[in-house]
Specification:
single chain, mainly alpha, Cytochrome C3, two-stranded antiparallel sheet, 3 helices, Multihaem_cyt_sf, transport, iron, Cyt_c_III_dom, heme
Length: 118
């Protein structure tokens, strides 16, 4: 299957409102642009763990039964991988931190460096 272009944006999934940003009324967390071309050396299944060997369509995280909780992360559920927010954060940030530790080129790990668009 072909990957989306570099204009792909990770945003709140259908059925979930964008996360409020801090304590500012009406302010929402910005979305995350995801450049697939910068991840071309990463095996697809490293992120898309439900990818079939036949290269079929990638299932959406929230509809595949893996990360279908649309609640916001808080102290009570901070590690619950069922939360789609945790799935993205764990996958992206942990990979970027590991690359950084190995002194390899990587993407950002700070909130404002990823959440840049609306």
């Amino acid at each position: 299957a072909d990957a989306p272009g570099d204009d792909y944006v990770i945003s709140a999934p259908e059925g979930m409102k964008a996360k409020p940003k801090g304590d500012k009324p009406g302010a929402l967390q910005k979305t995350v642009p995801f450049p697939h071309s910068k991840h071309a050396t990463v095996e697809c299944a490293q992120c898309h763990h439900t990818l079939e060997a036949d290269g079929g369509a990638v299932k959406k995280c929230t509809t595949s039964g893996c990360h279908d909780s649309l609640e916001f992360r808080d102290k009570a559920n901070a590690k619950d991988i069922k939360l789609v927010e945790n799935a993205y954060h764990t996958q992206c940030i942990d990979c970027h931190k590991a690359l950084k530790k190995d002194k390899k080129p990587t993407g950002p790990t700070a909130c404002g460096k990823c959440h840049t668009t609306n």
